[in-house]
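User: Sequence in, structure out. Go.
Assistant: Echoing your sequence, followed by the structure tokens.
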Amino acid sequence: MNVVPLKSDISSRIDAALAEKPDGILEMIATKCAVSLWQVFQRLPEGQAVCVTGDRFEALWAEMTKWGSVLFIVHTDDIVLECEGALPPGTSSHGYFNIHGDSPIGGHIKASNCERIVLVDRLFHGRRSCSVQFLNSSGNAMFKVFVRRDKLRQLLVEQVALFEELRRIL
């Protein structure tokens, strides 16, 4: 995927914010630096963010339906909505990717708005965190799918293996 180099002043601001809180909330860093989440992803250390184009939406979604119960997050300026459940299969119709099934996760996603999908593997508040983040054309998250944790707050080993395999085959 083509990556447009950031202006040096923008890069410097993001780098400084990441150095100050390398395992912090990336949306907060984006807000602090007045940039998009995508611009922050571009400044993460090598290997922490692997990106593919949004046209891979349905293929990646189909793979993640095999993961079992995940943590589905929608993070806006006004809310961080978290929902645990399996990703149900979906179909495209009437301009939306429609998901319905035996899961609390359901609805209609404007998949055509997905410009990039970023697989993120980094520390978050001192612990490894693995997620698949779907970005719109403004470079901000539409939603995110996280590998879940067990009762001891450890990542589920089976899901980590599936996440790593997905990153490997991209």
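User: And one key feature?
Assistant: The chain has a mean pLDDT of 94.
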